[in-house]
Amino acid sequence: MILMTKVLLIGATGMAGQEIYQAATKAGLAVTAQVRHADKARELFGTGVTVLEQDALTLSKDELANFDVVVNAFSTSPAEADNHQKLAEHLVHRLGGDQRLLVILGAGSLLDGADDHLVVDDIKKTPGADAWIAIPEGQKKELDYLRTLSGIDWVGISPSYTFKPGPASDQMLVGNDHLLRNDAGESYTTAGTMAKAMVAEILHPAHHRECFTVANS
């Protein structure tokens, strides 16, 4: 008997989470949707969805032990941006060495330009960025924390400069830690493309304790 990989999807009803859920279940993965409101998950995914209804920051070691892979598609408000790192720490302290943690990061931690500056420095110059800059800064702190770890098999996936709804790109661009641009000079990643990359990494692990980035071609 072939056992399906058991995946806990944190933030399943968010922009990226919805696409990951659909792509993962289509690929034959056994997905449990972690959400704060089960009714919303059932509305989006149907009554057959397996739901874990609770705050991600309250997940216990025993609950997490039921899964082979934890996908963190968590999103939050600028006022609570520190929860990106807090959730990473919470999960790491409760996961075993044989489990994988896959995290959606932000473009802010990528490098760009001839001087390899952080993209978050460009984001800060965007008009009105003061209202939400805490989010990419929080995601950068999350990555900095993950990079200190040696006992957990974590992977971070960053979108390109703009992360937006939309289907997967037929030809996905993949890079390491530098901002990607397509032939038209555009730098964006749709939620569908992020889901495509996430599911591919679950099915065929190619990265360990490192981050990579994907973009639409």
Automatic annotation (TrEMBL):
Q: Which GO terms describe its molecular function?
A: oxidoreductase activity, acting on the CH-NH group of donors, NAD or NADP as acceptor
- Which residues constitute the signal peptide according to the record? none
**Pfam family membership, one:** NAD_binding_10
Q: Where is the NAD(P)-binding domain?
A: 11-201
Top-level taxon of the source organism: Bacteria
InterPro entries given for it? NAD(P)-bd_dom, NAD(P)-bd_dom_sf, Polyketide_Oxido-like
Q: Which residues cross the membrane?
A: none
In terms of SUPFAM superfamilies, this protein maps to:
NAD(P)-binding Rossmann-fold domains (SSF51735)
Full protein name: NADH-flavin reductase
